[in-house]
Amino acid sequence: MRRYGPLLLMLGLLLGPAYYLFCEHLSGEAGETFALTERAAHWTLPDGTLLHLLRGQAYRPLTLNLDPGMNRIAFRLTFEAAPGSSGASKAADEYQVTLLQSDQPIFERSLLVELAPGAKATVETGKLELYYPGAYEFLLEEAGTPRVPISRVTLEVRQKIDTLFLPLMWGGFAMLVAGLAVTLEPHLPRGRSR
Questions:
Q1: Among residues 18, 16, 26, which one has the least CA distance to residue 161?
Q2: Which segments in the chain show pLDDT lower than 70?
Q3: Rounded to an integer, what distance in angstroms lies between the CA atom of residue 125 and that of residue 142?
Q4: What is the phi/psi pair of residue 56, to 5°?
Q5: d(Cα 187, Cα 66) in Å, to the nearest integer?
Q6: Rounded to an integer, what distance in angstroms lies between the CA atom of residue 29 and that of residue 35?
Q7: DSSP state of 20
């Protein structure tokens, strides 16, 4: 049984952590990229709906043409902080991402962005699946006034992200644990028999 330990470890690493990292972070295709610059406390959506923000300002809503053929979709935001004094420290600011379909939110996420003046940070917002093609409004809202002023935000729409097959992933983690147990078992101290 001991000779199967390295094989179980290798298969477990491939089907567990490596498979998870590939599906969640490396799979998919880069889509369109947009720059977010203008901010205000209220906006008018293309359908005429007035959007008033209570917690802070929001970047101008972006109209995205999305389709179920792009599933799974993820949004990647890159925040660029304005330059500041050399002694300025890092701070974390909260943002809210909302995807609207006909003024109804279908996807919402809170983000915590930790930045120092003059630095960049990239944040993933999570994945979603669409059921209907059409024009969607993407809204990025500040939760209060940011402690680190942002000079620019870039949005990248990622598409065709693989979906995890959970039984395969959990089977990989089980193989990894079994491989560790089989490999380490000969090196564990034995209890004395009385």
A1: 26
A2: 1-2, 54, 85-88, 190-194
A3: 15
A4: 180, -155
A5: 56
A6: 19
A7: H
